[in-house]
Amino acid sequence: MAMPNLTGRCAVVTGAGKGLGAAYAKNLAAAGAAVVVNDIDLASAAAVVETIGREGGSAVIDGNSVTTWESSGAIVQTALDAFGRLDGLVNNAGVFYLADPSEEDPAWIEDMVHVNLLGTMYCGQHAIRHMTAHGGGSIVNDTSGAQSGMRHRGTYGATKGATASLTYSWAMDLAGSGIRVNAISPIARTAMVDYGKARGESGTDIPPEHVAPLVTFLLSDDAAGVTGQVIRLEGPQLSLLSRPGARRTTEENPTWDQDSLRAALPRLLELHQRG
Ligand SMILES: NC(=O)c1ccc[n+]([C@@H]2O[C@H](COP(=O)([O-])OP(=O)(O)OC[C@H]3O[C@@H](n4cnc5c(N)ncnc54)[C@H](O)[C@@H]3O)[C@@H](O)[C@H]2O)c1
Fold it and tell me: What share of the chain is helix, strand, coil (3-state, %, to 5)?
Protein backbone atom coordinates (compact mmCIF):
# COMPACT_ATOMS: atom_id res chain seq x y z
CA MET A 1 0.00 0.00 0.00
CA ALA A 2 1.63 3.22 -1.17
CA MET A 3 0.91 5.96 1.35
CA PRO A 4 1.10 9.55 0.02
CA ASN A 5 4.27 11.27 1.15
CA LEU A 6 3.41 14.39 3.17
CA THR A 7 6.88 14.84 4.62
CA GLY A 8 7.66 18.52 5.05
CA ARG A 9 3.96 19.48 5.02
CA CYS A 10 1.85 20.69 7.93
CA ALA A 11 -1.83 19.98 8.52
CA VAL A 12 -4.32 21.24 11.10
CA VAL A 13 -7.11 18.87 12.14
CA THR A 14 -9.83 20.48 14.25
CA GLY A 15 -11.68 18.35 16.80
CA ALA A 16 -8.85 15.80 16.60
CA GLY A 17 -8.92 14.61 20.20
CA LYS A 18 -11.40 11.81 19.53
CA GLY A 19 -13.38 9.97 16.89
CA LEU A 20 -12.79 10.72 13.23
CA GLY A 21 -10.47 13.69 13.85
CA ALA A 22 -8.08 11.58 15.94
CA ALA A 23 -7.94 8.96 13.16
CA TYR A 24 -7.30 11.69 10.54
CA ALA A 25 -4.48 13.22 12.62
CA LYS A 26 -2.77 9.84 13.14
CA ASN A 27 -3.07 8.88 9.46
CA LEU A 28 -1.70 12.25 8.29
CA ALA A 29 1.22 11.92 10.72
CA ALA A 30 1.89 8.38 9.47
CA ALA A 31 2.13 9.87 5.96
CA GLY A 32 4.83 12.23 7.25
CA ALA A 33 2.85 15.42 7.88
CA ALA A 34 3.46 17.54 10.95
CA VAL A 35 0.04 17.81 12.59
CA VAL A 36 -1.71 20.34 14.81
CA VAL A 37 -4.10 18.31 16.97
CA ASN A 38 -6.81 20.82 17.86
CA ASP A 39 -9.56 20.07 20.38
CA ILE A 40 -11.24 21.80 23.30
CA ASP A 41 -10.92 18.44 25.08
CA LEU A 42 -7.29 18.93 26.00
CA ALA A 43 -6.73 15.57 27.66
CA SER A 44 -7.90 13.69 24.57
CA ALA A 45 -5.86 15.89 22.24
CA ALA A 46 -2.76 15.38 24.42
CA ALA A 47 -3.23 11.59 24.19
CA VAL A 48 -3.36 11.80 20.37
CA VAL A 49 -0.20 13.94 20.27
CA GLU A 50 1.49 11.43 22.56
CA THR A 51 0.50 8.48 20.34
CA ILE A 52 1.73 10.24 17.21
CA GLY A 53 5.06 11.05 18.90
CA ARG A 54 5.46 7.47 20.13
CA GLU A 55 4.94 6.21 16.59
CA GLY A 56 7.67 8.52 15.27
CA GLY A 57 5.45 11.32 13.97
CA SER A 58 5.39 15.01 14.69
CA ALA A 59 2.42 16.74 16.34
CA VAL A 60 1.53 19.60 18.67
CA ILE A 61 -1.59 20.24 20.70
CA ASP A 62 -3.91 23.24 20.25
CA GLY A 63 -6.77 23.80 22.69
CA ASN A 64 -8.56 26.72 21.01
CA SER A 65 -12.23 26.52 20.17
CA VAL A 66 -13.09 26.86 16.48
CA THR A 67 -16.07 29.06 17.34
CA THR A 68 -14.67 32.60 17.21
CA TRP A 69 -12.71 34.54 14.62
CA GLU A 70 -9.88 35.16 17.11
CA SER A 71 -9.60 31.61 18.46
CA SER A 72 -9.73 30.04 15.00
CA GLY A 73 -6.99 32.43 13.91
CA ALA A 74 -4.99 31.21 16.90
CA ILE A 75 -5.33 27.60 15.67
CA VAL A 76 -3.74 28.51 12.33
CA GLN A 77 -1.08 30.51 14.20
CA THR A 78 -0.20 27.40 16.23
CA ALA A 79 0.76 25.67 12.98
CA LEU A 80 2.89 28.60 11.87
CA ASP A 81 4.59 28.94 15.27
CA ALA A 82 5.32 25.21 15.60
CA PHE A 83 6.10 24.22 12.01
CA GLY A 84 6.47 27.49 10.07
CA ARG A 85 3.90 26.55 7.44
CA LEU A 86 0.34 25.39 6.76
CA ASP A 87 -0.49 23.13 3.81
CA GLY A 88 -3.68 21.40 4.91
CA LEU A 89 -6.76 22.09 7.03
CA VAL A 90 -9.32 19.48 8.03
CA ASN A 91 -12.44 21.21 9.35
CA ASN A 92 -13.62 18.24 11.38
CA ALA A 93 -14.75 19.66 14.77
CA GLY A 94 -18.46 19.13 15.15
CA VAL A 95 -21.35 18.78 17.59
CA PHE A 96 -24.59 16.90 17.09
CA TYR A 97 -27.96 17.01 18.84
CA LEU A 98 -31.13 15.19 17.81
CA ALA A 99 -34.34 17.16 18.21
CA ASP A 100 -37.85 17.32 16.89
CA PRO A 101 -38.36 20.75 15.24
CA SER A 102 -41.04 21.64 17.78
CA GLU A 103 -38.64 20.97 20.65
CA GLU A 104 -35.33 22.43 19.44
CA ASP A 105 -33.28 23.95 22.24
CA PRO A 106 -31.85 27.37 21.28
CA ALA A 107 -28.61 26.51 23.10
CA TRP A 108 -28.20 23.40 20.92
CA ILE A 109 -29.04 25.37 17.76
CA GLU A 110 -26.38 27.96 18.58
CA ASP A 111 -23.82 25.31 19.49
CA MET A 112 -24.27 23.48 16.18
CA VAL A 113 -24.18 26.68 14.11
CA HIS A 114 -21.15 28.00 15.99
CA VAL A 115 -19.04 24.82 15.89
CA ASN A 116 -20.14 23.13 12.65
CA LEU A 117 -20.66 26.15 10.44
CA LEU A 118 -18.96 29.26 11.83
CA GLY A 119 -16.01 27.16 12.99
CA THR A 120 -15.56 25.81 9.46
CA MET A 121 -15.93 29.31 7.96
CA TYR A 122 -13.52 30.97 10.41
CA CYS A 123 -10.78 28.31 10.31
CA GLY A 124 -11.13 28.11 6.54
CA GLN A 125 -10.88 31.89 6.12
CA HIS A 126 -7.71 32.09 8.22
CA ALA A 127 -6.16 29.15 6.37
CA ILE A 128 -7.10 30.60 2.96
CA ARG A 129 -5.47 33.95 3.83
CA HIS A 130 -2.24 32.13 4.68
CA MET A 131 -2.38 29.64 1.79
CA THR A 132 -3.14 32.36 -0.77
CA ALA A 133 0.00 34.21 0.27
CA HIS A 134 2.14 31.06 0.42
CA GLY A 135 1.47 29.11 -2.75
CA GLY A 136 -1.59 26.97 -2.05
CA GLY A 137 -2.90 24.12 0.05
CA SER A 138 -5.81 21.76 0.54
CA ILE A 139 -8.90 22.16 2.72
CA VAL A 140 -11.26 19.33 3.64
CA ASN A 141 -14.59 20.26 5.20
CA ASP A 142 -17.01 17.89 6.84
CA THR A 143 -20.60 17.33 5.77
CA SER A 144 -23.05 14.54 6.54
CA GLY A 145 -25.79 12.50 4.95
CA ALA A 146 -28.09 14.77 6.99
CA GLN A 147 -27.42 17.59 4.52
CA SER A 148 -29.99 15.93 2.25
CA GLY A 149 -32.55 15.84 5.06
CA MET A 150 -32.93 13.35 7.89
CA ARG A 151 -35.48 13.24 10.67
CA HIS A 152 -34.57 15.07 13.90
CA ARG A 153 -31.49 16.57 12.28
CA GLY A 154 -32.91 19.86 10.99
CA THR A 155 -30.30 22.20 12.46
CA TYR A 156 -27.44 19.70 12.23
CA GLY A 157 -28.27 18.96 8.58
CA ALA A 158 -28.57 22.67 7.83
CA THR A 159 -25.06 23.31 9.14
CA LYS A 160 -23.77 20.47 6.96
CA GLY A 161 -25.73 21.60 3.88
CA ALA A 162 -24.33 25.08 4.36
CA THR A 163 -20.85 23.56 4.60
CA ALA A 164 -21.38 21.82 1.26
CA SER A 165 -22.44 25.17 -0.29
CA LEU A 166 -19.36 26.80 1.20
CA THR A 167 -17.18 24.07 -0.30
CA TYR A 168 -18.60 24.57 -3.81
CA SER A 169 -18.21 28.35 -3.66
CA TRP A 170 -14.72 28.38 -2.13
CA ALA A 171 -13.53 25.89 -4.75
CA MET A 172 -14.80 28.23 -7.48
CA ASP A 173 -13.30 31.33 -5.84
CA LEU A 174 -9.94 29.61 -5.37
CA ALA A 175 -9.68 27.87 -8.76
CA GLY A 176 -6.23 28.55 -10.16
CA SER A 177 -4.86 29.70 -6.79
CA GLY A 178 -3.32 26.34 -5.87
CA ILE A 179 -5.85 25.90 -3.06
CA ARG A 180 -8.21 22.92 -3.39
CA VAL A 181 -11.39 22.70 -1.31
CA ASN A 182 -13.39 19.50 -0.91
CA ALA A 183 -15.77 18.00 1.63
CA ILE A 184 -16.30 14.50 2.88
CA SER A 185 -19.43 12.84 4.18
CA PRO A 186 -18.17 10.08 6.49
CA ILE A 187 -19.75 7.33 8.55
CA ALA A 188 -17.96 5.79 11.52
CA ARG A 189 -18.62 4.66 15.03
CA THR A 190 -17.74 7.53 17.38
CA ALA A 191 -19.19 9.19 20.48
CA MET A 192 -21.50 11.10 18.13
CA VAL A 193 -22.96 7.92 16.67
CA ASP A 194 -23.26 6.32 20.12
CA TYR A 195 -25.25 9.40 21.25
CA GLY A 196 -27.70 8.77 18.39
CA LYS A 197 -27.84 5.04 19.05
CA ALA A 198 -28.72 5.66 22.71
CA ARG A 199 -31.73 7.62 21.38
CA GLY A 200 -32.97 4.86 19.08
CA GLU A 201 -31.10 5.83 15.91
CA SER A 202 -29.28 3.25 13.82
CA GLY A 203 -25.55 2.88 14.56
CA THR A 204 -22.51 1.53 12.76
CA ASP A 205 -19.42 -0.43 13.69
CA ILE A 206 -17.23 1.03 10.94
CA PRO A 207 -14.10 2.35 12.70
CA PRO A 208 -12.91 5.96 12.11
CA GLU A 209 -9.67 4.53 10.68
CA HIS A 210 -11.71 3.38 7.67
CA VAL A 211 -12.30 7.02 6.64
CA ALA A 212 -8.85 8.45 7.43
CA PRO A 213 -7.08 7.42 4.16
CA LEU A 214 -9.61 9.51 2.19
CA VAL A 215 -8.61 12.64 4.12
CA THR A 216 -4.89 11.93 3.66
CA PHE A 217 -5.50 11.37 -0.06
CA LEU A 218 -7.34 14.70 -0.40
CA LEU A 219 -4.52 16.55 1.35
CA SER A 220 -1.90 14.97 -0.88
CA ASP A 221 -0.70 15.68 -4.42
CA ASP A 222 -2.42 12.44 -5.48
CA ALA A 223 -5.62 14.52 -5.38
CA ALA A 224 -4.24 17.29 -7.62
CA GLY A 225 -7.16 18.52 -9.72
CA VAL A 226 -9.78 17.30 -7.24
CA THR A 227 -11.66 20.33 -5.95
CA GLY A 228 -15.24 21.39 -5.28
CA GLN A 229 -16.35 17.81 -4.54
CA VAL A 230 -18.37 16.30 -1.72
CA ILE A 231 -17.20 12.71 -1.37
CA ARG A 232 -19.18 10.23 0.67
CA LEU A 233 -17.61 7.17 2.22
CA GLU A 234 -20.20 4.82 3.62
CA GLY A 235 -18.43 1.60 4.58
CA PRO A 236 -17.51 -0.15 1.32
CA GLN A 237 -19.25 2.46 -0.84
CA LEU A 238 -17.41 5.49 -2.19
CA SER A 239 -19.62 8.03 -3.94
CA LEU A 240 -19.83 11.63 -5.09
CA LEU A 241 -22.72 13.76 -3.93
CA SER A 242 -24.39 15.52 -6.82
CA ARG A 243 -24.52 19.31 -6.63
CA PRO A 244 -28.06 20.64 -6.18
CA GLY A 245 -29.39 22.22 -9.34
CA ALA A 246 -32.69 23.06 -11.02
CA ARG A 247 -34.89 20.26 -12.30
CA ARG A 248 -36.93 22.03 -14.93
CA THR A 249 -40.34 21.58 -16.40
CA THR A 250 -40.59 21.47 -20.17
CA GLU A 251 -43.34 24.08 -19.92
CA GLU A 252 -42.53 27.78 -20.03
CA ASN A 253 -44.80 30.70 -19.33
CA PRO A 254 -43.96 34.42 -19.50
CA THR A 255 -45.86 34.75 -16.20
CA TRP A 256 -46.88 32.00 -13.82
CA ASP A 257 -50.36 32.59 -12.40
CA GLN A 258 -52.47 30.40 -10.08
CA ASP A 259 -54.03 28.45 -12.95
CA SER A 260 -50.74 27.65 -14.71
CA LEU A 261 -49.02 26.77 -11.40
CA ARG A 262 -51.90 24.51 -10.39
CA ALA A 263 -51.67 22.71 -13.73
CA ALA A 264 -47.86 22.49 -13.99
CA LEU A 265 -46.74 21.58 -10.47
CA PRO A 266 -48.28 18.09 -10.37
CA ARG A 267 -46.73 17.34 -13.78
CA LEU A 268 -43.31 18.61 -12.61
CA LEU A 269 -43.47 16.54 -9.42
CA GLU A 270 -44.60 13.47 -11.32
CA LEU A 271 -41.82 13.86 -13.89
CA HIS A 272 -39.05 14.15 -11.31
CA GLN A 273 -40.40 11.73 -8.74
CA ARG A 274 -40.31 9.12 -11.51
CA GLY A 275 -36.76 10.21 -12.49
N1 LIG B 1 -19.40 9.74 13.05
C2 LIG B 1 -20.12 9.81 11.94
O3 LIG B 1 -20.65 8.82 11.45
C4 LIG B 1 -20.26 11.13 11.24
C5 LIG B 1 -21.14 11.21 10.14
C6 LIG B 1 -21.25 12.39 9.44
C7 LIG B 1 -20.49 13.47 9.82
N8 LIG B 1 -19.67 13.39 10.91
C9 LIG B 1 -18.88 14.58 11.27
O10 LIG B 1 -17.54 14.21 11.52
C11 LIG B 1 -16.96 15.15 12.43
C12 LIG B 1 -16.32 14.38 13.58
O13 LIG B 1 -17.35 13.73 14.29
P14 LIG B 1 -17.12 12.46 15.23
O15 LIG B 1 -18.16 11.49 14.85
O16 LIG B 1 -15.70 12.06 15.23
O17 LIG B 1 -17.56 13.09 16.62
P18 LIG B 1 -16.86 13.13 18.06
O19 LIG B 1 -17.90 13.70 18.96
O20 LIG B 1 -16.26 11.81 18.38
O21 LIG B 1 -15.65 14.15 17.87
C22 LIG B 1 -15.85 15.53 17.70
C23 LIG B 1 -14.68 16.25 18.34
O24 LIG B 1 -14.84 17.67 18.12
C25 LIG B 1 -14.44 18.33 19.32
N26 LIG B 1 -15.03 19.67 19.39
C27 LIG B 1 -16.31 20.00 19.71
N28 LIG B 1 -16.45 21.34 19.75
C29 LIG B 1 -15.25 21.86 19.43
C30 LIG B 1 -14.77 23.20 19.31
N31 LIG B 1 -15.59 24.25 19.55
N32 LIG B 1 -13.48 23.40 18.94
C33 LIG B 1 -12.65 22.35 18.74
N34 LIG B 1 -13.04 21.05 18.87
C35 LIG B 1 -14.33 20.83 19.20
C36 LIG B 1 -14.93 17.41 20.43
O37 LIG B 1 -14.28 17.67 21.67
C38 LIG B 1 -14.61 16.04 19.86
O39 LIG B 1 -13.33 15.58 20.24
C40 LIG B 1 -18.09 16.08 12.86
O41 LIG B 1 -18.05 17.28 12.11
C42 LIG B 1 -19.34 15.29 12.51
O43 LIG B 1 -20.45 16.13 12.30
C44 LIG B 1 -19.54 12.25 11.63
Answer: 50, 15, 35
